[in-house]
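User: I'll paste a sequence; please echo it back and then give the predicted structure.

Assistant: Echoing your sequence first, then the prediction.
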Amino acid sequence: MFPEVARPDAPEWCGTVKCTDDEGQEVKWLEVPPKVGSAIFWYNLDLMGEGDRKTLHAGMPVVEGTKVGLNIWTRERRYRQENY
């Protein structure tokens, strides 16, 4: 769940993101239901290299089955200077 990101309004997105909650109420934020074999990716920084508040996110509780998570931290520039 990404509470700072608005859910796309177009109805064709409702097959990919959650458009209504369990009570049938419209979901206003971006929430991606789990799907075996799928993943989502986002950048935590904006174009100026600053933290992007919109990437604030939370995992949802497991209702059934097992939850598996994986974090991959990517870099666009070198992390440290190598001394060879």
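The radius of gyration is 17 Å. The chain has a mean pLDDT of 87.
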